[in-house]
Amino acid sequence: MSLQSVRDFFAEKAPDISVIESPISSATVPLAAEAYGVEPGRIAKTLSLRIGERVILIVAAGTSRMDNKKVKAAFGGKPKMLGLEEVAEVTGHEVGGVCPFGLKAPLPVYCDISLKAFDVVVPAAGSTHSAVRITPERMAELTAAEWVDVCETRSEAR
User: Fold this and answer.
1) Phi and psi dihedrals of 34, rounded to 5?
2) How many independent structural domains does the chain possess?
3) Please, which residues bridge with residue 121 across strands?
4) Residue 45 lies in a domain
5) Does residue 16 fall inside a structural domain?
6) How far is 1 from 127, CA to CA, in rounded Å?
7) Which of 78, 75, 63, 10 is nearest to 33 (CA)?
8) What is residue 156's predicted lDDT score, i.e. its pLDDT?
9) Contact of 66 with 72, CB cutoff 8 Å
10) What is the pTM for the complete model shown?
Protein backbone atom coordinates (compact mmCIF):
# COMPACT_ATOMS: atom_id res chain seq x y z
CA MET A 1 0.00 0.00 0.00
CA SER A 2 2.80 2.39 0.86
CA LEU A 3 4.43 2.24 -2.57
CA GLN A 4 0.98 2.79 -4.09
CA SER A 5 0.33 5.84 -1.90
CA VAL A 6 3.60 7.34 -3.18
CA ARG A 7 2.67 6.53 -6.80
CA ASP A 8 -0.72 8.19 -6.20
CA PHE A 9 0.97 11.25 -4.65
CA PHE A 10 3.15 11.77 -7.75
CA ALA A 11 0.32 10.99 -10.19
CA GLU A 12 -1.66 13.83 -8.59
CA LYS A 13 1.02 16.40 -7.73
CA ALA A 14 3.94 15.74 -10.10
CA PRO A 15 3.06 13.36 -12.96
CA ASP A 16 6.46 14.07 -14.55
CA ILE A 17 8.20 12.21 -11.71
CA SER A 18 8.28 8.42 -11.91
CA VAL A 19 8.89 5.99 -9.09
CA ILE A 20 11.87 3.77 -9.87
CA GLU A 21 12.19 0.26 -8.48
CA SER A 22 15.27 -1.80 -7.75
CA PRO A 23 15.53 -5.58 -7.60
CA ILE A 24 17.94 -5.16 -4.68
CA SER A 25 17.06 -3.64 -1.33
CA SER A 26 17.60 0.08 -0.84
CA ALA A 27 16.69 0.01 2.85
CA THR A 28 19.90 1.69 4.03
CA VAL A 29 21.94 4.57 2.64
CA PRO A 30 24.79 2.32 1.38
CA LEU A 31 22.34 -0.14 -0.21
CA ALA A 32 20.33 2.65 -1.82
CA ALA A 33 23.48 4.30 -3.20
CA GLU A 34 24.46 0.99 -4.78
CA ALA A 35 20.94 0.22 -6.03
CA TYR A 36 20.52 3.58 -7.77
CA GLY A 37 24.13 4.21 -8.81
CA VAL A 38 24.74 7.41 -6.83
CA GLU A 39 27.09 8.47 -4.07
CA PRO A 40 25.69 8.00 -0.54
CA GLY A 41 25.28 11.74 0.06
CA ARG A 42 22.64 11.92 -2.69
CA ILE A 43 20.40 9.48 -0.87
CA ALA A 44 17.80 11.65 0.88
CA LYS A 45 17.10 9.84 4.14
CA THR A 46 13.94 10.59 6.07
CA LEU A 47 14.19 10.67 9.86
CA SER A 48 10.97 10.18 11.85
CA LEU A 49 11.19 12.03 15.16
CA ARG A 50 9.07 12.77 18.16
CA ILE A 51 9.72 16.08 19.89
CA GLY A 52 7.45 16.38 22.89
CA GLU A 53 3.99 15.49 21.58
CA ARG A 54 4.82 16.35 17.95
CA VAL A 55 5.98 13.94 15.25
CA ILE A 56 8.02 15.46 12.43
CA LEU A 57 9.98 14.23 9.44
CA ILE A 58 13.42 15.55 8.61
CA VAL A 59 14.87 14.76 5.19
CA ALA A 60 18.67 15.00 5.05
CA ALA A 61 21.61 14.02 2.86
CA GLY A 62 22.59 10.39 3.31
CA THR A 63 26.01 11.12 4.76
CA SER A 64 24.85 13.75 7.24
CA ARG A 65 24.16 13.10 10.92
CA MET A 66 21.44 14.67 12.98
CA ASP A 67 22.83 17.13 15.52
CA ASN A 68 20.67 16.82 18.66
CA LYS A 69 21.65 20.29 19.89
CA LYS A 70 20.63 21.90 16.58
CA VAL A 71 17.33 19.95 16.56
CA LYS A 72 16.58 20.98 20.13
CA ALA A 73 17.33 24.62 19.31
CA ALA A 74 15.20 24.56 16.15
CA PHE A 75 12.20 22.70 17.57
CA GLY A 76 12.30 23.48 21.28
CA GLY A 77 12.66 19.95 22.60
CA LYS A 78 14.77 16.84 22.71
CA PRO A 79 14.33 14.64 19.61
CA LYS A 80 13.57 10.94 19.94
CA MET A 81 13.58 8.56 16.96
CA LEU A 82 10.30 6.69 16.50
CA GLY A 83 10.37 2.92 16.99
CA LEU A 84 9.95 0.52 14.06
CA GLU A 85 6.22 -0.13 14.59
CA GLU A 86 5.47 3.50 15.31
CA VAL A 87 7.19 4.63 12.09
CA ALA A 88 4.95 2.39 9.97
CA GLU A 89 1.86 3.29 11.99
CA VAL A 90 2.42 7.06 11.77
CA THR A 91 3.83 7.42 8.22
CA GLY A 92 2.24 4.45 6.48
CA HIS A 93 5.72 3.51 5.19
CA GLU A 94 7.95 0.68 6.38
CA VAL A 95 11.39 1.45 7.80
CA GLY A 96 13.79 1.61 4.86
CA GLY A 97 11.08 3.07 2.64
CA VAL A 98 10.07 6.10 4.69
CA CYS A 99 9.75 9.27 2.65
CA PRO A 100 7.84 12.55 2.84
CA PHE A 101 5.49 11.53 -0.01
CA GLY A 102 2.14 9.71 0.20
CA LEU A 103 1.97 9.79 3.98
CA LYS A 104 -0.84 8.08 5.88
CA ALA A 105 -1.70 11.45 7.46
CA PRO A 106 -0.15 14.89 7.01
CA LEU A 107 3.04 15.47 9.02
CA PRO A 108 5.33 18.50 9.21
CA VAL A 109 8.26 17.95 6.83
CA TYR A 110 11.62 19.70 7.13
CA CYS A 111 14.47 19.52 4.64
CA ASP A 112 17.96 19.88 6.05
CA ILE A 113 20.27 22.25 4.17
CA SER A 114 22.67 19.32 3.63
CA LEU A 115 20.47 18.41 0.64
CA LYS A 116 21.33 21.70 -1.09
CA ALA A 117 24.81 20.36 -1.92
CA PHE A 118 23.18 18.23 -4.66
CA ASP A 119 21.31 19.08 -7.85
CA VAL A 120 19.32 15.82 -7.65
CA VAL A 121 18.68 13.58 -4.64
CA VAL A 122 17.22 10.09 -4.34
CA PRO A 123 14.70 9.64 -1.51
CA ALA A 124 12.87 6.36 -0.89
CA ALA A 125 9.38 5.98 -2.31
CA GLY A 126 7.44 4.03 0.28
CA SER A 127 9.17 0.65 0.10
CA THR A 128 12.63 -0.84 0.54
CA HIS A 129 12.93 -1.32 -3.22
CA SER A 130 11.70 2.03 -4.58
CA ALA A 131 12.87 5.64 -4.91
CA VAL A 132 12.52 8.79 -6.99
CA ARG A 133 15.04 11.19 -8.48
CA ILE A 134 14.12 14.77 -7.61
CA THR A 135 15.72 18.14 -7.00
CA PRO A 136 15.84 19.13 -3.33
CA GLU A 137 13.88 22.30 -4.09
CA ARG A 138 11.09 20.39 -5.83
CA MET A 139 10.90 17.88 -2.98
CA ALA A 140 10.54 20.73 -0.47
CA GLU A 141 7.93 22.41 -2.65
CA LEU A 142 5.82 19.25 -3.14
CA THR A 143 5.86 18.38 0.57
CA ALA A 144 5.45 21.97 1.85
CA ALA A 145 8.72 21.47 3.73
CA GLU A 146 10.61 24.16 5.57
CA TRP A 147 14.39 24.35 5.25
CA VAL A 148 16.33 23.84 8.49
CA ASP A 149 19.95 23.43 9.58
CA VAL A 150 19.83 20.49 11.99
CA CYS A 151 22.52 18.11 10.73
CA GLU A 152 26.27 17.99 10.56
CA THR A 153 28.05 16.69 7.51
CA ARG A 154 30.80 14.08 7.75
CA SER A 155 33.46 16.77 7.61
CA GLU A 156 31.89 18.56 10.60
CA ALA A 157 31.56 15.35 12.64
CA ARG A 158 34.16 14.78 15.29
Assistant:
1) -70, -45
2) 1
3) 134
4) yes
5) yes
6) 9
7) 63
8) 44
9) no
10) 0.94
